[in-house]
Amino acid sequence: MLYLTWLFAIPVVVLLLWLAWRRPNRQRLPWRLLASAVAGISLVLLVFPPVTKQAISPSTAILLTKGYDADSLEALLQKQEAKPQVYTYKTAAENNAAPLTSLHSLRQKQPGLQTVHLLGYGLDEQELQQLQNLQVQPHLTQAPAGVQGLNWRQSIKLGEAVEVAGKFKASNKPAKLYLYAAGKAQDSVAFKTDSTYTFNLRYKPKQQGRFVYTLTAKSGEQVDTLGQVPVQVEPTQELGVLLLASSPNFEFKFLKNHLAQLQHRVALRTSISKDLSQSEWLNLPQRDLSRLSSKLLQDFDVVITEPEALQNLSSSERAALERAVTEDGLGVLTIAAAPVVSRSTSFFTGFQTKRLSQQDSRSARASWASNSTATATAAPYTLANTTAVKSLIAEDDGNNLAGAKRAGWGSIAMSFVPQTFPWVLEGKEETYASYWAHLLSGLAKEESQEKFWQLVKPQVPQPNQPTILDFTDYTLADGAAAPTAIVISLVDSTSISLPLAQQQYQPEQFSGTFWPRRSGWYQVQTADAAPYFFFVQDSSDWEFESIAARREATQAFAAQQSIRSAEDTAIAYKKEPVSLLWFFALFVLSSGFLWLEEKF
Fold this sequence. Notes:
With about 600 residues, this protein is an alpha/beta fold. The longest helix is centred in the N-terminal third of the chain and has 20 residues, at about 1-20.
């Protein structure tokens, strides 16, 4: 083809040069000769357009996903010996990039495709399954500025606080996060520029029910809604609390009345003398408290006592109390003003301690939960920090005013804060309530559930994305049929049957995948089990969660693949015609010059 082109070009160019040379006017002769040659060559190339030979790789492709970086694409193309085909998926197309509506069409477009270079934030698990038997090489973009991790308890007890914790990567502008609940911002945190921070936003609901709070970010004048924070506030667990006092005192009197007002079942046994005690019962039938037995202790979740009261127990009572802790999960809290060295009570009081002051008491800044602090009169001792002891009430300097450790199925704890009732006298009822709610929740006998649901993943369900739910039934007999489940939308009351598959190595556990169609609250239920509620977010919410999931899924998918041999990188060549616009422009300019030059 090249020879044919020049076969026509040479006579045409020679003819035009001869015509230009034979003109009598010798002015501008070099320019006429040059224009004649260009006109002749460009005319022939318009009729017989040339082609270029370009190296391509039919076994390699580049796939651009949302968030890809143009500089990374350019750097990758420069490293390739042969130019691969570039595709885009669910993102704006680059020049010469072919958009894909489905990943299945990749093999149709390139039958010999073997390696895919993946740029951007990656693909989710379902999309990656469409790339099976292809070698995926990820070149992932770093997560953008903003929230990069988030966690909160989606079910709390009334009286507890909702805590939204996570990480925030600040950009080059100061930013601020707000937690909106009950129609206004309840908590906020500010961030400086160009750094990564951890944050914790809190709000204490005033009533039980299902609520949806909102997390927003403000940077300059721009305000963005990051996502919803669904929370189910459940009624406070009504505990059975047994108080064993060595003598009448205000601490146990105030505590008894406080717990009874919260509808807890409370019993108080106060020693009057060696062989005489006084008993009180609130919110529960009267029972004989003169002697502790295993049967009696089964009705209680927590026992709160003093070292002297423990020493006054008979050996059989202490043995029954110890069995209730180790075998039934009972929690026992001992309130002390000094370390206890008695061998008879060592099971309950055997904590390592350290003296901090030579005074009989000291003022301590007590803290618990998050942002809950108060000044308390404490004993001049602290519990030693050991791996076995979990801190319940701490000080700012790291000392432990109260701590607990596991003992079989239950917990034993000791506190060096002998008096908390002064908070009530000072009008700090909320501090008093929060303190004891925190202690009781850390010690109470754990509620056992034989049948329950749980959301496995994702943390943030979204419409048209798979939501995996697990159902556990410890009462299921061998060979019994799988339970049936129904998912109900609380938005429009539509329901759908949820098929459950039994786990091979955990026969008591069943798993089902639900595809929600819209956002809002959903309820999943099965026979003889408490219903379970979960919330489906809008598709635009918690973009960081989607980005993190895609990055993680892509990296895991690539890590599981075997490395292919170098022979897969075959090189081919394709011919591409040169654009005719160049030759047309040269022909117009050169011929126009010859026409104008002849007029002058």
